[in-house]
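Researcher: Good morning. I'm working through a list of sequences from a screen, and I'd like to move beyond sequence-only analysis. For each chain I'm collecting a predicted structure so we can compare shapes side by side. This is the next one on the list. No need for commentary yet; just the structure.
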Amino acid sequence: MIHLYSGSRCPFSHSARIILYKKNMDFNIIDVDINARQDLMIINPKNETPVLVDDIDKNNRKKDLILTNSNIIYEYIDERFPHPQLMPIEPAERARLRMIIFNIEQDLFQYLRYYDTNLFSKEPKNKKQLEQAKKYIIAAIDELAKIFTINKKAEYLFGNSLSLLDAAVLPLLWRLKYYSIDIKPSWLGLIKYAKRMFQTKEFIDSLTPAERGIGIV
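Model: Good morning. Structure tokens for this chain:
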């Protein structure tokens, strides 16, 4: 069984939970903010979430697979539980989506990780870095919003169904108010998409009690 060590407000953990609930398979979510922080530090010294542990039984030998990289976790869940598939079937389209996710990791998620972790830091030295990270996050959202400006009929960020890209981005859009990011007029198509996705079963089920109170809707 998959065990997901998850932060109750961590956007990357939230993405993993969306994927797991979309798959509707057996899994166990461990909230590290309640009683498992010490366990997390043992399996991931960086003390970052999410962490995925999968119990594997081969030839009567139980071995645990431990994954600490968010993107690898997302893809592993998708391959471990192949229905519904959240990556394209065609190799070229799969590669194209991987490149988009890789670029967003460089342009957005590395800054989001810093911003989310240090949002309430009282250290003066962090203030300038937080503002810089926020600028990168907003610039990345500008680019995402263009998807719905260019194609007003687009229903998802990639392709014609929910993908790993949607699961990765939706937690950020849910947290815009929490992050003190004002919605621009040019984002209206993106926000309309987000609000529609926020009503899906997998998104509603994925929310922790802490997350329910910080969303934009």
